[in-house]
Predict the 3D structure of the following.
Amino acid sequence: MKNYVILGVAYAFLLVGSTSALSPQKVEITEVQGPSFQSPLAGQVVQVSGIVTAKDRYGAWIQGDRSDDIRVSSGLRIYGSLAVKLANVGSRVSVTGRVTEYRHDSNDLYLTELDQLSAVEVLSTNNIVEPLVLGVDRTPSRSRLSSFDVGPDGWLSLPNNVTMLESTNPTLRPEEFGLDFWESLEGQLVTVPLPTAANFPDRFGSIWVYGDWPVVGQNQRGGLTILADPDGIPPAHSEAILIGRALDGTRNPKTMMGMKLSNITGVVTYQYGNYYILPLTAPDVLEAPPAEVPPSTLNSSIHACQLRIGDYNVENMGPRARHMPRIAAHIVGHLHTPDIVFVQEIQDDSGPRDNGVVSANKTLTALVDAIKKASGGVVYHFVNIDPEDNKDGGAPGGNIRVAYLWRPERVSLVPGTIGNATIATQPVIVKNGQVELSHNPGRIDPLHPAWEETRKPLAAAWQTATGERFYTVNVHFSSKRDSSSAQGDARPPVNGHAERRQSQANVTATFVRSLLEFAPDASVIVGGDMNEYLAARAVLHPLSTVLHDANEVAGVPLQERYTYVYDQHTQEIDHVLVSNAIADREGGVEVEHVHVNTWAESYGGRASDHDPTVVRLWVCDPADSDATEELGADHGQIVL
Ligand SMILES: *[C@@H]1O[C@H](CO)[C@@H](O)[C@H](O)[C@H]1NC(C)=O
Ligand SMILES: *[C@@H]1O[C@H](CO)[C@@H](O)[C@H](O)[C@H]1NC(C)=O
Ligand SMILES: *[C@@H]1O[C@H](CO)[C@@H](O)[C@H](O)[C@H]1NC(C)=O
Ligand SMILES: *[C@@H]1O[C@H](CO)[C@@H](O)[C@H](O)[C@H]1NC(C)=O
Ligand SMILES: *[C@@H]1O[C@H](CO)[C@@H](O)[C@H](O)[C@H]1NC(C)=O
Ligand SMILES: *[C@@H]1O[C@H](CO)[C@@H](O)[C@H](O)[C@H]1NC(C)=O
């Protein structure tokens, strides 16, 4: 056995008059880590010993004896070329260096490490460190991420960014809080038994997984849903962990939601705003879920009053969009050509070109033509209102907007005058006490500051083939751009533009309320991309006070309510909300989120980033409508 002692760097320090001690304090790794987020020894030069568990291009990880105190990690990152040169996996080493709290970005959490290494001495080789088995030795917390995520919506509470975790540096409570749990294992070697992937890889090839331990909101596919549980705090899914790039240079598999992987062993670290396990070697795929996505079962309607309504964010669709035929195929094959389709992200006729064009007639014509072709003849009509050029956010020049497609044999717009970009439509009472919209369709309060730089909602008054009225609002609220990492320093984390979405929900709710004041029994459907979970109750509260979530009325299991996958979460950010009249009507409401995109085999294999939804509901009572027989003849046509 050879012992290496490297003192060159310490000597250099002495020459420049560094304060680095000649005989540094000998401490245990657990004393370096301590029971808080930050080291009690930060800034001090210490000598520690431990067994090397892992290595990368910049340093290594060492592990000492475990503490009985679960708050205190026994692993440590050692950073620098001396570690790269001398710390080989399995060696017991004595390391002298400075305790440092490092972070790359001001919203990151700190990683405790030893840098400015002055000595790395190999004491013995071929030692073995048994990894801690997650789910057996220690089980990830499923509760709040942090003690500072106060408020009824947990990590989604408003106001957010109230406390900076690192400036408070609390003592860890690993059994209660997710960040505390992973921090208490920082630098340690752990195994994730029987991992399941929760998402596609991110753009760096990192993958979110959870292991063989209890999780919250697990859907049937294997993803983890942000539940909008009326009695609970929305889960932050800190029981899932990111698997970073493998330390031996092997590549992580291209995962999809629900994919089963081989056991992962690696070291716990923090980087790029999240806790990670850096695997010693990349896992293998053991089992992929079925590639086939079943179509909706809501394939027909039995009556003029019973409508099927689709909702689909078609992701930046211009007239020549390559994904258009696939979107059309989804509307036909998976949604069975609903009676009305709410679409979002229709680009103008010049697509992404920033040339002053705002009309989307060509785009919408191309889409309905593609549907006609895919279905063998189903004809949709369409309507939208052109925004003012570059006033509605999104990619410059794209002028994305919401639009309606509908099947004229099933429904039609109540005759009226279409609005424009700046006119606000209003509910008005006309003869017989019937409610119309001053512009049909029309935008809701388009000059309200809530809509600055974003898409305005499109309200419409409709009639069924039997002349019964109902109303819709198609929305696309501001995105979550500028959110901070949920595992970052700001607590609760920043939910980008949440106040703006709250205000947009409020303006939309005010409109619906004014309509219901005239006609309390009106059938109203508000749908679209709200870029927010109902679990963020404070944000969508204005709408929740006046409308019902169709999922709730339909009794869709909480964990199956999702249209999007982001980080480790499946989440419902596209919603269909209905008025009392629809919620209470006999016949009920049925909802299916059709997972054509969140279940795709690869990130690039998706047609859009959102899943479409189809609902079947009654907008009038069959008894109030005398056209059951007339419709018999039509019925064959509408079932496709
Ligand atoms: C993976 O972990 C499971 C659960 O702990 C264990 O039963 C299994 O033997 C492990 N597989 C391998 C190949 O180590
Ligand atoms: C519609 O769906 C039902 C239930 O899934 C199925 O039994 C029926 O065959 C389907 N009909 C058509 C026309 O696809
Ligand atoms: C778009 O189509 C509508 C009718 O569908 C028409 O009234 C309008 O003039 C068209 N706009 C343009 C710019 O062609
Ligand atoms: C909308 O119509 C109103 C009334 O006709 C008009 O004053 C306004 O300029 C129009 N707005 C746009 C953007 O065309
Ligand atoms: C949180 O607020 C502080 C000011 O108190 C600000 O400096 C910081 O950038 C904010 N964090 C995020 C992630 O927006
Ligand atoms: C919602 O809108 C109403 C009516 O315009 C207003 O009084 C209230 O302050 C708004 N609330 C929020 C949270 O924006």
